[in-house]
Amino acid sequence: MVLGKRICVGWNRLLLLLPAVILIPHFLSVKELHQQMDSRDVPKEKPKKPDHLIQGPAAGEGLHNRLQCQGTRALNRTQILKFRNNSLPTDHVALVTVFTTYNSTADSDSRRNDLVSVGNVSYNKVERSMAILNVFLNFVQVTMPESHVIILTDPAVDLPLHRDIVTIQPIQGEYSRDKLMLQRIRSYIMFLQTRLEKLKQKQEQVTHFIFTDSDIAVIGDLGEIFSDYPNFDLALTFRNNKDQPLNSGFIAVRGTADGIQRGVAFLQEVLAVYSSKFMQASRMLGDQLALAWVVKSKPNFNIKRFSRGEAFQDMIGGASVLFLPCSLYNWTPPEGAGQFHGMPLDVKVVHFKGSRKRLMLEAWNFLSSSSNLPDMLCLILRSGRTKYDF
């Protein structure tokens, strides 16, 4: 009887403790949930990006066809520029870019806090954009001195540019940040259509066009592609990327009547696909997704060619399209094809995507002080894996 009584008392105690045992984990989980919610309410500080160049090892060490560097001194490259000597002069090639500015409505204190310094110069957001554009023009002037740059822009924007190599051409459209990539394709089409009409009326000579982003450094003569590959209508740059094999930051169109007509037709198809399939990515990447869709949807197109890293041509619709490797014509630190194997010796374009704009300005400053293009490329190669504050 005593044993049975003790068992009953033990069960009673256990039953009394059971709600606490059940509720304690519940209270703990509720407490954790509140802690998580409280932590969400506290804004997380973004990691501060470096405000100066940070150099690391130069990728491609020991590879015979890659730039070799000792610090910022190039070891195996004495001359990069190779000017052509044939019947196609460089003044028949024009670079075209779409550019606009967005005025900040922040107060003066916020604008002061937003200043970023490179060298001895400080820039606010608008000034940063203009600085990048000017450095883009500087590189073109050095490497393609007889070429011309055409800037397509919002008619409402007054660009403070007074340079002999530049023509500013306003084109009506929607230049908001969310629609800028869509507007860029529309501007290309409208620009080419205008040129075609003038060409037909014999008001213009044949000029080949290279449409680029403005955050690139041209370090080789891009006019060579029109003589080295005489039969293409339109050229695109590709990389070994399954979802985004084509980059829209470099598009070349042959300036003949046939070339422009076929280029316009191709871009109109890209615009239609962009508008119907990829508007959810209208602020970024939509144009590249549309380019890839148009190309890969063509019967018998061999997408394995994107992994080989060699230039090739194919018929896309009615246009002969030249595919050029990003590793040469759109090399990006640290993104893009070939960057983990270093910088190819015959690279023509360095693309400072995203947060690498400071590196673009620093590279130009280095070149201005040293006049040594190969050494500047070592600076880019060694500094290109860091996201900067510009």
Summarize the structure.
By secondary structure, the chain is α/β, with parallel strands linked by helices. The chain contains ten helices and 14 strands.
Can you describe this structure?
- There is one protein chain.
- The chain has 390 residues and is α/β, with parallel strands linked by helices.
- The chain has a domain at 124-353: Spore Coat Polysaccharide Biosynthesis Protein SpsA, Chain A.
- Helix content is 39%, strand content 16%.
- The protein contains ten helices and 14 strands.
- The chain has an eight-stranded mixed beta sheet. The protein has a two-stranded antiparallel sheet with strand order 1-2. It has a two-stranded antiparallel ribbon with strand order 4-5.
- Strand 12 (312-316) and strand 13 form a beta hairpin.
- Helix 9 (357-370) packs antiparallel against helix 10 (373-383).
- The longest helix is centred in the first third of the chain and has 40 residues, at 2-41.
- The radius of gyration is 28 Å and the shape is globular.
**What is the number of E strands?**
14
Overall geometry: globular
Helix content: 25-40%
- Total DSSP helices: 10
Q: Name the CATH homologous superfamily of the domain at 124-353.
A: Spore Coat Polysaccharide Biosynthesis Protein SpsA, Chain A
Largest sheet: 8 strands, mixed
Structural class: alpha/beta
Which consecutive residue ranges, at least 5 long each, have pLDDT under 50? 21-25, 81-91
CATH class assignment of the domain at 124-353: Alpha Beta
